[in-house]
Amino acid sequence: MAGEDILSDLMKLAELWQQSGKSVRAARLYQEVVERVERQRGTESAELIEPLRRRATALLETDLPHEQSCEPAEECFGRALRLQEQHYGPQTLEAGWMLLDLTDLLQDHERCEEAEELARQAWDIGRKFAWDDTALLFEATEWLVWWYEVHQEWGAGRRLLESSLELVAQLLGADHPRVAELMGHLANMLIQDGREVAYADELGARGLEILARAYGEMPLSTDLWPRAADDLAHIRLGFSSLYSIRAHAAFSRGELAACRLLLHRALFMLDLPEAELSSEMRANVAAAHAGTLQALAHLVSEEGDDGQAERLFQRSLALAEQGDPDRLAGLLDDYAVWLEDRGRVNEAEQARREADELRNR
Question: Which residues of 134-157 are buried (b: 16+ CB within 10 A; e: fewer)?
Fold first, then answer.
């Protein structure tokens, strides 16, 4: 009994160290717990799962070199997952969350195919338990949507989203905001693939109707209905994304005035109190702002104002620097094509070099 109390106290102390930012100390304490459990219960004990997982998380929060942080963290995650499957079976929610933890680690080290395979396994588990708990399904779907967009695997992304959309509509109802969110992701896949633009526009319009019914035409935080800054930003990002999708469809039909109106609505939704947002949400808002300005640049260029288009591209690039390097690289490639079309070959080559450097970091 005394041994169990000591283990419990060590876990609590390690958690406090981790919460206070002392991740190296926390990782050492978790390792001590692991070693004590191994001596008392053996190396295959189910009691090793939680300290192994927490040690991995703590290690990834440190500034230690790769061989002292990422490598042992991957080993801990892998061992915890193996023990979870050994004791409780391979298709548990806990195993699904561990798969996602390991997915992020592999992706950060550019083991992209392995990461995508693990995320798909987590998504399958999320589907299995969706009627009891939707969190894993949504998290795995979001991760895979990001992966398919970055790797431009539009067909695989579409199949994933169509399946998720059908299930979520059954789970939450066809008018739930989560359905609108998935509609936006699916519409974006179709737009990026250059296929079924009319269908993408329909999805965008339907998504906006759902969000407007849920939150009103212009979501705000009020005394009657207060919303946290990040929650409000998440809602407004959904609106902005759907407006941008509809703008793309209007542009493809040559309806430039409609495109401009929709893009300005998309920008208006991004007018948020950035100082109140978390760093992650600020990056998301900046990325959405950058993408909308990029679309505006193409619009004004189509209207013959290359000077304004240039300024919009520069503003877009500045904002994109706050977000995902892969998305910034994509924007630089797009800018390079625009420059090349105008005979500015040297500047286009420089933009492409910068994009390649970002991808090779």
Answer: bebbbbbbebbbbbbbbeebbeeb
Cβ pair 167, 130 in contact under 8 A? yes
Q: Which CATH architecture has domain 281-361?
A: Alpha Horseshoe (1.25)
| For helices 135-150 and 177-193, angle between their N-to-C axes, nearest 10 degrees | 20
Evaluate whether 152-248 and 281-361 have a shared fold.
Answer: yes
Q: Is 170 exposed, middle or buried (0-12, 13-18, 19+ CB in 10 A)?
A: exposed
| Measured CA distances, 83 to 40, 45, 180, 261 (Å) | 17, 8, 38, 55
- Parse the chain into domains and list their residue ranges: 152-248, 281-361
In one-letter notation, the amino acid at residue 304 is G
pTM of the model as a whole: 0.82
Structural contact between residues 268 and 292, judged by C-beta atoms closer than 8 angstroms: no
152-248: what fold? 1.25.40
Residue type, 193: D
Two structure tokens written together for 188: 């974006």
- The DSSP result for 79-110, as a single string, is HHHHHHHHHH-SS-HHHHHHHHHHHHHHHHTT
pLDDT per residue as tens, the chain (361 positions): 455 678 888 888 888 888 888 888 888 888 888 888 888 888 899 898 888 988 988 888 888 887 888 888 889 888 998 999 899 988 899 999 989 988 988 887 778 888 899 999 999 999 999 988 889 999 999 999 989 988 888 989 999 999 999 999 999 999 999 999 999 999 999 988 887 899 999 999 999 999 999 998 888 876 667 888 899 999 999 999 999 999 999 999 999 999 999 999 999 999 998 889 999 899 999 999 999 999 999 999 999 999 999 999 999 999 988 877 878 888 899 999 999 999 999 999 999 999 888 877 7
